[in-house]
Amino acid sequence: MGNSTLCFLISFALLAYYIYTPLPDNIEETWKLTVICNSFKIMHYLATSTEMLGLAHYMDVIYTITNQGNVGPISDENVTVTDTTFNGIPVRLYVPKRKSDKLKRGVFHIHGGGWCVGDKAMNDYDLFSRWTANRLDAVVVSTNYRLAPKYHFPVQFEDVYTAVRWFLQRQILEKYGVDPSRICISGDSAGGNLAAAVNQQLLDDPDVKIKIKIQSLLYPALQSLDMDLPSYRENKHMLILQKSLMVRFWSEYFTTDRALEEAMISSRHVPVESSHLFKFVNWSALLPEKFKKGHVYANPIPGTSDLAKKYPGYLDVRAAPLLTADTRLRRLPLTYIMTCQHDVLRDDGLMYVSRLRQAGVQVVHEHVEDGFHGILSFLSFPTALNVGLRVGNEYISWLKENL
Ligand SMILES: *[C@@H]1O[C@H](CO)[C@@H](O)[C@H](O)[C@H]1NC(C)=O
Ligand SMILES: *[C@@H]1O[C@H](CO)[C@@H](O)[C@H](O)[C@H]1NC(C)=O
Q1: Is 186 one of the catalytic residues?
Q2: Is residue 343 annotated as part of the catalytic site, yes or no?
Q3: Domain boundaries, the chain
Q4: What secondary structure does DSSP assign to 49-83, as a single string?
Q5: Strand locations in 117-244 (E)
Q6: Given pLDDT bands bounded at 50, 70 and 90, which one contains residue 12?
Q7: The domain 25-403: what is its CATH number?
Q8: Ligand 2 neighbour 301 (Cβ under 6 A)
Q9: Could you tell me the pTM of the whole model?
Q10: Residue from 74, 134, 379, 396 to probe ligand 1 pocket by mutation (most atoms less than 8 Å from CB)
Q11: What mean pLDDT is predicted for residues 20-27?
Q12: Predicted confidence band at 3 (pLDDT cuts at 50, 70, 90)?
């Protein structure tokens, strides 16, 4: 977001106004949203045509455009902001200036962007980290990781895991004045996927002695086995994340070979040998009644492709945290999950809420009825949205109470 969006908005506001975009009835600020929506569409057409001409990969175009408004590590009156590395991984650190004898809370945040785009320096991520640091009196670490299409799974996961492990060392926490018993690992969207995976991995890491207090998963992506969930059907063309884009993100996480994307679109990517995994993403059993309404469940049909042999990542729990058995889920910390009604990823989050509760994990579930994917990326001018500000504030207040 930021300047690039501003450019887009101004250049195309007029055009955008004439392009009809159907929006759900309960969503506010329709005019602003229509403009945002159309800026994303235009970005999509630009990236698609650039790719078709063979000039650049689709994701590289999106990455370049969305990073135009990035901000530097600039301290303000409340928070000292610096860029550094944690064992080679670039992170941005937000340390509150407020003096106190007490140790501070620690929040480790992982940005979203479909494992392909996004950056800790994006204006809205930077803003949200400042707010978190200031209001919680917390040390916030916002991490980067290498992205697709240049790097594929498990690089993204491993980069984040490397940074998390570095942060969780006693002497590092001590250096930054962080209380080891008050640490939250959070992420939004693809970052929520990485946060969920990292929290699971930490459970079995003999070198990490510190127990995470809270994991926060904000509209996370948690599996790619079933992309015909009710939420995918209902929000197939919803801003800002259409089904086609989400499938592309998932497939790019594992490979640039578009055969995987094609198989995923038509649900032919899960081989017979792995059909036992479907029970972990069975929306018929895992979704509350209200979200199943009007949808008919059919047992998924396994594919015959050999794609899973070539790109086994999508069957790996480090990429699909929903595929983890209950015996392991049981040991996870207090979990905050945010889902948005108008989001293809809604049911991933809902199913994880069910699976975690069934396993006995304490879950706080915030469902945003008037929300859509990525709402926390709309916090600053000119794309600040009431829904993003409201939900962001509520989330920070919850953390203040519970972390
Ligand atoms: C600093 O903190 C105060 C009190 O929380 C707040 O009113 C002010 O806006 C903050 N300044 C910045 C630059 O965020
Ligand atoms: C999914 O759950 C339903 C019950 O809600 C059950 O009939 C069906 O066999 C299950 N399918 C799989 C693949 O687990």
Answers
A1: no
A2: yes
A3: 25-403
A4: HHHHTTSS-HHHHHHHHHTTT-------SSEEEEE
A5: 138-143, 178-188, 214-218
A6: low
A7: 3.40.50.1820
A8: no
A9: 0.95
A10: 134
A11: 78
A12: low
